Amino acid sequence: MERRSALVTLGAMSLGAASPKLETGEILKEPYKLTKQTLKADILVIGGGTAGVVAAIQAGRAGRKTILVENGSQLGGTTTTGGVAFPGIFFAWGKQIISGIGWEMVQEAVALNDDTLPNFSIPHGKNHPKHQVRLNGQLYAMLLEEKCVQAGVQIRFYETPTQITFQKNNWVVETVGKGTMTQITCNQLIDCTGNAYATSIAGFDVLRESVTQPGTLMFKLGGYDFSSLDVKLIQARYQEAIQKGELVKTDFRNNIIGLLRSAGDNIQHVMGADSTTSETHTVANIKGRASLLQTLRFLRTLPGCEKTKLIDMQNETAVRETYRIDGHYKITQADYVTGKLFDDSVSYSYYPIDVHDENGVVPDHLAEGIVPTVPLRALIPKNSRNFLVAGRCVSSDRLANSALRVQASCMGMGQAAGAAAVLANMQNKTPLDVSMSDLRKLLEEHGGIVPGTSSKG
Amino acid sequence: MRVLKINRLFAFILVPLLVSAYDSIGQIRYFRTPTIALKPDTTLAFIAASQDSIANDTLFQIRSKEGYPMAYFRKIRTSVCFDNKCRLLKVNLYWTSTGRYLGFDLPKGEFLSKAEHKPFTPAEYERMSELLADPLSLLATLSYAELAPQVKPPDKGSEVDGVTSATAKNVLEYVVEGAAYTTYKMWHVVYGSTQEDVARLTEKSLSPGFIQTVLESPDLTDKIWALNHIRGFIKLTPALQNALLGFISPTDYNQAERAIQAFGAGDLQANTIQQALFTKFREANYALKKLIINKFKEAPMLDKQVKKAFAEDLTLLNSELISNVLDLFRKHKVADVDTCRMIAQLLTNRNDLIAQKAFTYLNATQSMMR
């Protein structure tokens, strides 16, 4: 072969290797290039969980251009992805204390699933779960999404902030996601990550207990008849397995009977579970799943439980406690159990003091007639401007937080934070300077129940 | 369920039972105050459909002279066992027509006892009746074996009745001390399958008059039960329609929600009902307003006055309720000039979302009118 013709042949071959042969209908795409987008919004909500969805809908319904950034694939957080689909409690002592957007969504989920509501008129006594509303979590996730879209909220799934800076009275938030890199400039920022993550990135102080409450991986078991089990024998076998180191005592609160009775549900404890970063949440997920798998294998060795099956399991471990903001006011246990009313109370909360630890949980119920409240100042980090939080990272001491963290209370806070951000944006103020009468008016217009002059229910 | 017999004699026995709470003929009996104002007349006996461990499977239904079911009872003969030792429990348990616990009595000469045959005191009988009246008791979720503490005390006798075992500390609040197993057994009979039998039997006898009577009960559970047994069960009378409207108030969400739900499409044919419901809309809180707007979507057609009133209220509502009203109008194909003119006022609303929703609606009316 001549040298020249050989080179031509080689060139043709290499070209052939670089350009794959295309089948009918296929096209060759250029390599994906990550390009930075720039977006603007009046209000940015980071975290599409229990509080964040309500905050975003409130802002959208009030006519503000709103973006909601969520690092998962669906809205609802602990209620949906976490599987804790019983977002109580909305009624206290026979009266409704949390309404508005959160209750509206719960109400629609109940109706669309032909579920029934508990009779809230009858006190729950020491059995507060009797006033929990059980939801179809996946249905609820779809409803939340629909409500956001209808309110004009722009949802951005799979994104997380990496940098948050305050520039010229606006927040500039850098986010990354699957194939996205975005700069969002907003006038008001609401941190609804549950972990005060945005607060921390923005440079404000956050607080944390040396030992936090355990998380829970929600699941459902089946394949056995609880009433026919030899409870004593099972209890003995369980203790034996713990003694031998085959099972961990704290994983199921040292209560195998409780696990079998409830067939899973809200029973597992994942010690130290933390959802703040990908790494910590990965650890919590692996621990939760490993413990469940180990326990499932053990259950199948028990008489009457040989056919125990895992019927369902959530995709991730739900988390109770991580970081809280250092706010302009810290709600204390004394405030909570006495139902302290503040000049700037923006929402109610109602739940027993409910600290889960390695031994389980013993709820400490509120005295009759007590309905705690949340002041606006507890939703605002010290030294911040144009910045709010809502949800379990509310400024509070540990015991108060153990009650404030529940979903209905987070919904109330979410709506309040959303409304405060709307007014701050419209009036060119920081949320701390928004007048309570304006805030009350806006919240009540949107169905919220505001402590103080507005009556419950 | 099969009717066995009709025994009018029971009625004469039961009249005093339902009005008194204590022994007059050497018989021990404890009753809650009846909440449905009816007098017993006849008693029917049915074979209970449910399977349980109770020897006697007959469920007696007590009826008023109007033919309304007013109470039920069952003669319980069952064993209370622990550690292979058993004792026969003989007791008659009573339910209201809505399935709530009503009371119990014991056959003549019988009594309830605690450990070592110690008879119940009157206070303990009272407590037993209180405990049985609690549908939220922890006993619902406990297993029988969990009543005793982990460490068993020495065996002191051959019979049980809460008896040979001490009671676990966490359940003391829910049982008569020393009679945990008896309490457990009785509670589970009260809230067991018989409750479903009671519900099924009462549902066969529903009538507007009976529902009206139950709605007048001071008991909140009775009221909700009655509200849940209207739609699909009976036809609303004018008296019941008024009663339902009376329940639609922000003071009790459950009752209001159930009352709104109880109106069917047929009831909404009447303009008067639609107008009354709209009056309730104006008085309602946010959560109820949404339910009422959605209820109007079930109406075969929207009353003209109601349509006008909704349109007039548009500028007073928040964006979500406006959206709901526009959905209602869309459902009823509302496209008349007067209504559209009122919707057009929203086009200049300072809330862009509201203006946008009004624009979308008005745009769509063009195709509605074609």
Automatic annotation (TrEMBL), chain A:
Keyword Nucleotide-binding (UniProt): no
SUPFAM superfamilies per the UniProt record, alphabetical: FAD/NAD(P)-binding domain (SSF51905)
Record keywords, A-Z: 4Fe-4S, Iron, Iron-sulfur, Metal-binding, Oxidoreductase
Signal peptide bounds: none
GO-annotated molecular function: 4 iron, 4 sulfur cluster binding; metal ion binding; oxidoreductase activity
Domain of life: Bacteria
Keyword Metal-binding: yes
Pfam families: FAD_oxidored
PANTHER family registered for this protein in UniProt: COB--COM HETERODISULFIDE REDUCTASE IRON-SULFUR SUBUNIT A (PTHR43498:SF1), FERREDOXIN:COB-COM HETERODISULFIDE REDUCTASE SUBUNIT A (PTHR43498)
Protein name as catalogued: FAD-dependent oxidoreductase
Lineage start: Bacteria, Pseudomonadati, Bacteroidota, Cytophagia, Cytophagales
TrEMBL record, chain B:
Top-rank taxon, per record: Bacteria
The protein's name in its UniProt record: Uncharacterized protein
